[in-house]
């Protein structure tokens, strides 16, 4: 069955990445494939936590940092690709284990929150990624300074929140940090393209940036929806 002309036109626009070089398109496919592998690891880690209540809490942060250090220290050569993908997968598992307490919080209020947050995160991630790829080259790279300042501001807000534990300041932190990581999706996507154009083809490491953005948005949406649902009840 053929699609109507208007719909075919819309689909062609959505899949038209003619402004990207063929090598860059292949690199992006590798990046998103690696990110999917990392997300699979995160799913397994989260599932293990939910089924066994196995907790490593802050230890997961140190394990994740250690795995990232190991990944960065392992040369990006053909002979080490399987090893590096294994490290990436392990990083996803520790990230999923670290996400466990937030999942517990959301599920205790309403299990549907997890599905809603994941769908919303996926839609946000796809929308901002496509916006970055369709936009004029380097148009979002100027966000680098703004995002760095935003992270410093969030650090300050979190320190203030340690003393002023009001719901208003907590919500402000959640909403601002969520918007900030959405902007990071724009920035990191275009940065990956520019890095590849300039000879950096480490797609495994590039996938880490996008995975961290996705996980950060998902974690915050879990909390936002949980807080809103709890307020309703």
Features:
mainly alpha; 8 helices; globular; 233 residues; single chain; 81% helix
Task: Give an overview in words.
This protein is mostly helical and 233 residues long. The protein has one domain (21-232). The chain is built from eight helices and no strands. It has helices at 5-14, 22-52, 58-73, 81-109, 112-134, 143-161, 167-197, 203-232. Residues 5-15 have low confidence and may be disordered. Belongs to the BI1 family. Keywords: Apoptosis, Membrane, Transmembrane, Transmembrane helix. It is a multi-pass membrane protein. This is Transmembrane BAX inhibitor motif-containing protein 6.
Give helix and strand order, one letter per element, not per position: HHHHHHHH
Percent helix, as a range, is over 70%
Distance between the termini: 48 Å
Q: What structural class is derived from the secondary structure elements?
A: mainly alpha
Total beta strands: 0
Give the overall pLDDT as a whole number. 85
Question: Total helix count?
Answer: 8
Strand content: under 5%
- C-alpha geometry: globular
Poorly predicted regions are 5-15
Biggest beta sheet summary:
none
Provide the domain count.
1
Radius of gyration: 19 Å
Family: Belongs to the BI1 family.
Main location: membrane
Subcellular location: Membrane
Keywords: Apoptosis, Membrane, Transmembrane, Transmembrane helix
């Amino acid at each position: 069955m053929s699609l109507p002309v208007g719909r075919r036109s819309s689909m062609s626009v959505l899949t038209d990445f003619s402004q990207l070089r063929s090598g860059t398109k292949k690199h992006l496919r590798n990046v998103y494939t690696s990110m999917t592998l990392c997300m699979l690891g995160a799913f397994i880690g989260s599932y293990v936590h939910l089924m066994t209540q196995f907790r490593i809490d802050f230890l997961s942060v140190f394990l994740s940092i250690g795995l990232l250090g190991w990944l960065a220290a392992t040369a990006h050569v053909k002979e080490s690709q399987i090893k590096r993908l294994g490290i990436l997968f392990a990083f996803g598992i520790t990230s999923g284990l670290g996400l466990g307490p937030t999942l517990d919080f959301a599920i205790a209020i309403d299990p549907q929150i997890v599905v809603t947050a994941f769908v919303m995160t996926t839609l946000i991630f796809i929308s901002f990624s496509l916006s970055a790829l369709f936009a004029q080259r380097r148009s979002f790279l100027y966000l680098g300074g703004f995002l760095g300042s935003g992270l410093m501001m969030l650090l300050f807000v979190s320190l203030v929140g340690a003393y002023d534990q009001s719901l208003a300041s907590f919500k402000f932190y959640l909403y601002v940090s969520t918007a900030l990581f959405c902007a990071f999706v724009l920035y990191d996507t275009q940065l990956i393209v520019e890095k590849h154009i300039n000879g950096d083809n480490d797609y495994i490491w590039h996938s880490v940036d996008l995975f961290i953005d996705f996980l950060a948005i998902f974690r915050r949406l879990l909390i936002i929806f949980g807080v809103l649902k709890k307020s309703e009840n």
